[in-house]
Amino acid sequence: MKELIAYCGLDCETCEARLATIHNDDEAKARVAEKWSSLNQISITAEMIHCEGCRVDGVKTVYCDALCPIRQCAMQKSFETCADCADLHSCKKISPIIGNNPSALENLKTT
């Protein structure tokens, strides 16, 4: 499996936060922060947009590193991704992701 597929199946390779980080693009970080603040109804600053990918070594956003319940669960269970979990299709943690992102579920199926 590609190491840039997150535990939940999202593709970190195309993530706006990761791209802004690896290109050291402050304007892109500001755009992502504004977009994510609006989507999540919380305040996210450009300085918080700093991530190299969910399952790879390197920096992560505060949410991805310490707060994401999906990542924390998969790491605790030593899963490569949520595809390794027997509860994938009934899990309330991942259902919003795979329910709204068909490509995430497809990424998990192809692992």
End-to-end distance: 5 Å
Oligomerization state: single chain
Strand content bin:
under 5%
**Residue windows where pLDDT falls under 50 for at least 5 positions:** none
Described by strand count, sense and barrel closure, the largest sheet is: none
Number of strands: 0
**Coarse morphology:** globular
Helix and strand pattern: HHHHHH
Mean pLDDT: 93
Number of contiguous helices: 6
From the helix content, strand content and strand pairing, which structural class follows? mainly alpha
Q: Give the fraction of residues assigned to helices.
A: 40-55%
Rg of Cα set = 14 Å
Total number of distinct structural domains: 1
What this model shows, in words?
This protein has 6 helices and no strands. With 111 residues, it is mainly α. The protein has one domain (12-93). α1 packs antiparallel against α2. It is globular and about 40 Å long. The model has no long low-confidence stretch (mean pLDDT 93).
How would you concisely characterize the structure shown here?
The chain has about 110 residues and is mainly α. The chain has 6 helices and no strands.
